[in-house]
Specification:
Helix 1 crosses helix 3, helix 1 (3-31) packs antiparallel against helix 4 and helix 2 runs antiparallel to helix 3 (66-89). The protein has 5 helices and 2 strands, in the order H-H-H-H-H-E-E. The protein has a two-stranded antiparallel ribbon with strand order 1-2. It has 169 residues and is mainly alpha-helical. Helix content is 72%, strand content 6%.
């Protein structure tokens, strides 16, 4: 199997597992919200955060972002692992094995995605020269900042004003 086909398959497997994990987590958070008239603020905060994660996964999926899907896959693996720990502490097998299974396949799919993707290599002379130029420009900026040759503006915050201060004052 060609390497880019292997990378595409790894991306879609990881994206699917991550999306399923995020949707399952969000659906449980929303399902256990208290009914109308009863306000449990903590449950509402948990549900709002759980709803944000599948949206971010779908955004990364839309952009076909390998790094974004890998980061969200790792995040969802950790969320499911912590849910499994909660299941162990509550002595509930159903709340332990399901999240543990999702966490393990999530971690495996992220590892598969990261191992199967090729490293970016510039294809022609112009791309190599441009990449080298950006590398040295970024290194020069960081080096100047570290050696304090570039003055970074320091700001003082006053009510409704943002005033630039000179160094040493």
């Amino acid at each position: 199997m060609p390497n880019n086909e292997k990378t595409a398959r790894a991306f879609w497997v990881c994206a699917t597992i991550t999306a399923i994990s995020a949707i399952v987590s969000a659906s449980f958070s929303v399902a256990f919200l208290p009914g109308p008239g009863i306000h449990d603020t903590f449950a509402m905060y948990a549900a709002s955060r759980s709803l944000a994660i599948p949206l971010v996964v779908l955004i990364f999926l839309g952009f076909r972002s390998r790094g974004g899907i890998a980061a969200m896959g790792l995040t969802m693996g950790l969320v499911q692992l912590f849910d499994a720990v909660i299941g162990v502490l509550s002595h509930d097998a159903g709340k332990t094995y399901g999240p543990l299974f999702l966490a393990l396949i999530g971690f495996v799919s992220v590892a598969f995605l990261l191992r199967s993707s090729e490293r970016f290599e510039p294809h022609n002379h112009l791309q190599r020269r441009r990449a080298r130029k950006y590398y040295w420009t970024i290194n020069a900026i960081i080096g100047n900042l570290i050696s304090n040759r570039v003055e970074v503006p320091v700001f003082e915050i006053r009510p409704f004003l943002l005033i630039r201060k000179k160094r040493g004052n």
